[in-house]
Specification:
By secondary structure, this protein is an alpha/beta fold. 29% of the residues lie in helices and 19% in strands. The chain contains 13 helices and 13 strands. The chain is globular.
């Protein structure tokens, strides 16, 4: 990586719950991606914020960092290295602004702020945060925009009859989507406000700004998931990554990549090598794609087990998938079921073509087993793991 990038500030903004296929309704974000390096095929390794945030900040799968269910929200492994902790080695000042303290470890942050998502004025808050942090020579700032999450509950889910056994919700997918989309302008205005404030502060030419989503959301496409975090269909796991780098040639990188790739990417920006205390990081820098030294899709493993499923909530993740080359294998450990999709011809995942004798299915099952064993995840397929 060019040495001058290590002098840049870094801002990482999570637009919590913004689906990749809904960016088209965000004018400012759409315009920004035309000036940036855009990864439209990034896959989250876990489709709910609590787990996804800690994977982003460590470069590790949930089964590695400890938060592999809502039951384990306080089980983050304190010995792990985080992005802010790593950046402090390169003299960055680090700050986090988050909705709830449980959603992000404090480890490595010089300052850690929590806001009330029901009363917060994001524009004023972000403007003040940027003015304050600009006093530092070099900084890393993590921002969470969580209002889409709030609207999903108050303006989408609450509009259907709670006593109808959910039928009304799952029979009105388009209406649910329309309600969600109607609130995207406010999200888009937050993007515009951050970029214009950086411009006013004369920081835009020395700051790398990353906009992404930690997960998508369901509008009721699959019965049993009204929100996110229960299943691993593309509407919740396919996210995006927009990286604005001053004076860098804009481009679209179509290759599939993963949210655990963010950690090594930011390390490379800062000119830092991942030493022995980061040897368990399985992600790879996204600059390999930008340089053209890597051209193939990266295989992605996803794990979840959310609170809102049709079965009792698991004590650990019990839904997994392997996704590569527009094909996806899904394994539900409780109850034990399999699904296989050809995403090129069936992007809505409507036609389960699982056939245990198919060579593709056999190959993907072997890859799934490799991931489960590497990450030491105990399932019906891996009963010997303690």
């Amino acid at each position: 990586m060019d040495k001058h990038l290590s002098d840049y500030n870094i801002i990482l903004v999570n637009l919590d719950g913004l689906r990749q296929d809904k960016i088209e309704f965000c004018d400012h974000l759409n315009s920004l991606k035309e000036k940036s390096i855009y990864f439209p095929n990034m896959i989250t390794v876990s489709p709910y914020t609590l787990s996804a945030h800690h994977s982003i900040i460590t470069g590790l799968y949930p089964s590695q960092h400890g938060i592999d269910s809502y039951y384990h929200m306080f089980k983050f492994k304190k010995t792990l290295v985080t992005i802010p902790e790593l950046l402090k080695r390169a003299n960055y000042f680090t700050r986090c602004d988050i909705q709830l303290e449980t959603l992000m470890t404090r480890k490595g942050f010089d300052e850690y702020n929590v806001f009330d998502e029901h009363t917060v004025d994001y524009k004023t808050r972000h403007r003040n945060l940027l003015k304050d942090i600009s006093k530092h020579d070099k900084f890393f700032l993590f921002l969470q925009y969580s209002k889409l999450h709030t609207y999903l509950i108050s303006e989408v889910m609450s509009k259907t009859d709670k006593n109808s056994d959910d039928d009304e919700y799952f029979q009105n997918v388009q209406a649910n989507e329309n309600r969600f989309v109607s609130h995207l302008k406010e999200c888009d205005d937050v993007v515009s406000n951050i970029m214009s404030t950086l411009d006013e502060l004369r920081l835009l030419d020395k700051t790398i700004v990353i906009f992404m989503a930690d997960h998508g959301t369901s509008f009721g496409e699959k019965r049993g998931e009204k929100f996110y975090g229960t299943f691993v269909y593309d509407y919740t796991i396919k996210v995006f990554y927009i990286m604005y780098i001053p004076n860098e040639t804009p481009r679209i990188v179509q290759n599939q990549c993963s949210t655990i790739d963010i950690f090594p990417t930011i390390a490379e920006i800062a000119g830092l090598k991942l030493d022995n205390d980061c040897s368990n990081v399985l992600g790879k820098s996204l600059f390999n794609f930008i340089r053209g030294s890597e051209n193939n899709d990266r295989e992605v493993f996803v794990e979840t087990g959310g609170l809102h499923g049709p079965w009792p909530s698991p004590k650990r993740h019990n839904v997994f998938c392997v996704r590569k080359n527009n094909k996806k294998l899904i394994y539900n450990d409780t109850p034990e079921t399999w699904e296989f999709y050809d995403l090129k011809n069936d992007p809505q995942e409507a036609n389960n073509i699982h056939d245990e004798n198919s060579q593709d299915v056999i190959e993907f099952k072997n890859r799934l087993l490799d991931h489960l064993k590497t990450l030491q995840i105990k399932t019906k397929l891996t009963p010997d793991i303690v």
